[in-house]
Specification:
196 residues; alpha+beta; NADH Oxidase
Length: 196
């Protein structure tokens, strides 16, 4: 299996450096304790006023609901995601209990998803999050209540071999990871003036 540890400019925790989003998953399924641990981490994520405006729905490979989730993915994701042990949706509750908008709901959902991601990494798993899915279809087919909005889909599982992927996907799987340098998005004090 390939080592995709990030080549960082500054030291970060090894678990953060080794986190990546594979497309190749092994056939190994997850046990109930492992699944519960992943979602427990999301439960303890911070949120504005402790509103916890997130929810998740998932299905394990081999179940009919897993096939329903597969049917909601774009074809480019379905090529590889159907091999994951678990597929799920991250859901945002955009309104507060009093019905007013919660402007921090999506940010808080992102934090919960990040907590879930790093708990999975700590357990030797990988998560690949996806924007490529049909939220309306997923809501209708999975009975998601109207006060919850599907934001992302995700696949979770143990790492598999890149050679198991279709040729069209292998190149992405084996590519070196890259990111913008921190200088592109971190500023000290006030934002610098734009110069034409």
């Amino acid at each position: 299996m390939q080592d995709k540890t990030a080549r960082t400019d500054h030291p970060i925790h090894p678990m953060l450096a080794s986190r990546w989003s594979p497309r190749a998953f092994s056939a190994r399924l997850l046990d109930t304790d492992t699944i519960n641990s992943i979602f427990e981490a999301a439960r303890w994520s911070p949120s504005a006023n402790n509103l916890q405006p997130w929810a998740f729905v998932f299905a394990e490979r081999g179940t009919s609901d897993f096939e329903v989730l597969c049917g909601c993915l774009k074809e480019s994701n379905l090529l590889w995601a159907r091999n994951a042990a678990l597929l799920g949706l991250a859901l945002e509750r955009p309104a507060k209990p009093d019905g007013s908008p919660n402007p921090h709901a999506r940010y808080d959902l992102g934090q919960a998803a990040a907590h879930m991601t790093f708990q999975a990494c700590a357990l030797g798993l990988h998560i690949h999050q996806m924007a490529g899915f049909d939220p309306a279809q997923a809501s209708a087919l999975l009975g998601i209540p109207p006060d919850l909005l599907p934001v992302t889909a995700f696949a979770i599982g143990y790492l598999g071999e890149a050679s198991s992927l279709p040729a069209s996907v292998q190149e992405k799987e084996l590519a070196i990871r890259s990111r913008y340098p921190t200088s592109a998005f971190v500023q000290v004090g006030r934002w610098p003036k734009h110069v034409d």
